[in-house]
Write a structure and sequence with these properties.
Elements lengths: L32 E5 L2 E4 L4 E4 L2 H4 L8 H12 L9 H11 L7 E5 L2 H16 L3 E5 L29 E2 L2 E4 L4 H8 L5 E6 L15 H11 L3 E6 L11 H4 L6 E4 L10 E5 L1 H8 L13 H15 L3 H21 L5 E5 L2 E5 L8 H7 L2 H14 L1 E2 L8 E2 L6 H22 L1
Parallel strand pairs: 3-14, 5-7, 5-8, 8-9, 9-10
Antiparallel strand pairs: 1-2, 2-3, 4-11, 6-7, 10-11, 12-13, 13-15
Helix pairs in contact: 2-9, 3-9, 4-8, 5-6, 10-13, 12-13
The structure holds pyridoxal-5'-phosphate (PLP).
């Protein structure tokens, strides 16, 4: 007897190219998106959801903003990739750097991971040093070096007595001033500190008062540069960099997501002085698609759209939703709090938000976060299923949408009282 033929594996590995974006099945059904508009997303069965994921933070104007669509369509029609220099790229750089203070020069790339990579190479070229120090629990993309110590990784626990150096990267503890001094003691090879000024990918852990100042002072004292990873935070809480809002003056910053409304684009931005090295050809920068006309059109149209956002209103609306969640949880006898901002927050099943990565790791309740995700999804609200996941509120989430969102949360939290304990 011959063995039955094995079922062929599907051509698309894992059903999605970026593993972190896969959703669990619900009632045996896979989730597949059909389209998205404003605060909503529809699945292939035509079900409408209020989307609190918004392209993992890429949409600040809401999905499929008309002005961005028009600009992108025009760019596609004029040739998606002529290959040589074009004015749209220059206009996009001007539009982007209008809101980034002393970081007046830009280089476009295609993803946040690339922007971080280029930032690290630039810092090494400038200082002649090799090591980049990054925070345990910070996420800077999936490239080999910066992925060291990403949220949930074994090395992010920092169990070792000795500080680990892997390749050209080492780790330090967020919100721990003493650890900054320990990092620099006896070391003269640190080119830069790479920081997510809010540890967003570990559940929106905010910097303690004066922590960023201590960090900047130590970096200056030891001749290391500061690279702010603003891929998630840039243009999310105000029309500019989060670093500048909290008094940090990095020499370099990586931006992405919100600058392109979901079109694949990111950028390294830097001070005139540092970017002069790039003008001089150090380090290597290349990329068939970097700064392509479609991405450039998306940036210019998005930056124009961001000028019209009333950020204070977006933050206030999000904060009202957060307050409703806390109240609903209390009514249901659940312990719940949120960390972050009105436009981007994480839900915790504990009394107060964690202040360090170690506390966040200990506080994570993956089974409850998954239940919350599944039950909300069943009722028409989409969230990230992970315990460190964020809820994103955009300019398109108006009072009516958020009222519906809050009432669905209220039903779900009441329903979860029995399992959350
Ligand atoms: C803070 C931060 N840096 C870098 C990245 C990587 O960006 P990309 O996924 O565009 O490569 C992300 C993505 O989530 C991010 O949140």
């Amino acid at each position: 007897m011959t063995a039955p033929p094995e079922k062929p594996m599907p051509p698309l590995v894992g059903g999605i190219s970026s593993a972190g974006r896969s959703l669990p099945e619900l009632d045996g059904v896979k989730f597949r998106t059909a389209r998205a508009k404003g605060p909503y997303l529809w699945d292939e069965d035509g079900r409408r959801y209020i989307d609190l994921v918004q392209g993992f933070g890429a949409a600040m104007l809401g999905h499929s903003a008309e002005a961005v669509n028009a600009a992108v369509s025009e760019a596609v029609a004029a040739g998606a990739l002529p290959g040589f220099a074009h004015g749209a790229e220059e206009r996009a750089a001007a539009a982007l750097t209008r809101r980034t203070g002393k970081l007046t020069r830009a280089i476009f790339v295609n993803s946040g991971s690339e922007a971080v990579q280029l930032a690290c190479q630039t810092a090494r070229a400038r200082t002649g040093r090799r090591l980049i120090a990054k925070f345990a629990g910070a996420y800077h993309g999936w490239h080999d070096g910066p992925a060291l110590g990403r949220p949930g990784s074994p090395e992010a626990k920092l169990d070792d007595e000795e500080r680990k150096v892997q390749g050209q990267f080492t780790l330090l503890r967020f919100n721990d001033t003493d650890d900054i001094e320990r990092l620099f003691s006896g070391r003269h090879d640190i080119a830069a500190i790479l920081i997510e000024p809010v540890l967003a990918n570990a559940g929106c852990i905010r910097p303690a008062p004066s922590y960023l100042k201590s960090l900047a002072q130590a970096a200056r004292r030891h001749g290391a540069l500061l690279i702010a990873d603003e891929v998630l935070m840039g243009f999310r809480v105000h029309n500019g960099l989060f670093s500048h809002q909290c008094g940090l003056s990095p020499e370099l910053a990586a931006v992405g997501k919100a600058i392109g409304s979901g079109v694949a684009v990111a950028a390294l931005i830097g001070t005139d002085e540092i970017m002069a090295d790039e003008d001089g050809g150090r380090p290597l920068r290349a990329g068939t698609y970097s700064g392509n006309p479609v991405a450039s059109a998306a940036v210019s149209a998005t930056m124009a759209g961001l000028e019209n956002i009333d950020y204070r209103r977006v933050l206030a609306r999000g904060d009202r939703l957060r307050a409703r969640l806390s109240a609903a949880a209390a009514n249901a006898g659940l312990t719940l709090c949120t960390s972050g901002f009105g436009s981007m927050f994480t839900i915790w099943f504990r009394e107060t938000p964690p202040g360090s990565y170690a506390a966040a790791l200990a506080a994570r309740r993956p089974e409850l976060s998954m239940q919350l995700h599944l039950r909300l999804r069943r009722r028409g609200v989409l969230t990230m299923p992970d315990g460190f996941g964020r809820c994103f509120i955009t300019a398109a989430h108006d009072d009516e949408v958020l009222e519906e969102t809050a009432s669905i949360f209220e039903q779900v939290l009441a329903e979860m009282a029995d399992i959350a304990g």
